[in-house]
Amino acid sequence: LLFPVSNLCGKCRPRDTDLLQPSLNFLYWSLHQTTPCSQQRAVAVLLSNVSLLELLQKVLECTWLWSPPSRPAYLSSEDALLCSGWLLVASLLLYQHRYNTEVHQTLSVDLREVLNAVIFRNKKPILLLVSIMQFLRAVLRQNFSSSLLVIVGQNTAPSATQPQPSSLQDTALHPLAMQQVFSLVVSLQNLLVHKDLLLSQAVVACLETLVEYLYVKNQDVALHVVSQPWHRFLLFTLLSGGQKSFLQPEVLRLMTLFVRYQSSNIISQKEISQIVQEAGEANLAELPEATSCALHLFLCQV
């Protein structure tokens, strides 16, 4: 079925949302739900279809064109198609890298547009924001060097004879700039305060991947970012309200991140003891799967 469905997609225009939406979802499902041995073949089939990749290129570009000043509160058919497009491209990036699949047609994405979509949001629906963050995680994990993707809108390193410290940091973090990193971190923190489960999972995962990327590029920058005092205020905000429990998936994953990078000014021995105590008093068999996984990762990190 991959052959006819992918060929059908290649004959469509981005405005054919009623046909493209289920088709792209089928391709995405096929990549994730098939057996490992078939997965490699599925990736090869999709990446060899030039017309499909050209269609995906147009769909991604529509993200910046279909952005009216007042978006509806619900997920429109256009936004749903954009979600499917970003998720499928993120998956293709992941599996192309895993299997080193031959690429017949590259995709081009403006990095500034992707970052601005998360930093400024511009009333984008939560699901579209999550989908774009999944794509951002994929390119961060691959160090912006995928053979499937061409990154445009990159920051060019200054050519001054004696660059300033910020210029040196920008060079080390290329294609990101230091200012973009801080703006992205602040925006992720603000999105986390919304306490939407799907959004929280995506935000924490994106923050984890970003810090891992920074740590490889420049350890001082990564440690500086993860030790910002605002993180502690964010934790208190997440713990406020009706359920003052450390056993929340997003809180546990944030705590794990701070323990991993030894941010003792953000998470202290007291908080670690409270988490262990709460875990000891909880009925572990009744914890949601997301909480169990997050708690497991936290305890292993400690």
Automatic annotation (TrEMBL):
<dbReference type="GO" id="GO:0007127">
    <property type="term" value="P:meiosis I"/>
</dbReference>
<protein>
    <submittedName>
        <fullName>MEI1 protein</fullName>
    </submittedName>
</protein>
<dbReference type="InterPro" id="IPR052133">
    <property type="entry name" value="Immune_Signaling-Apoptosis_Reg"/>
</dbReference>
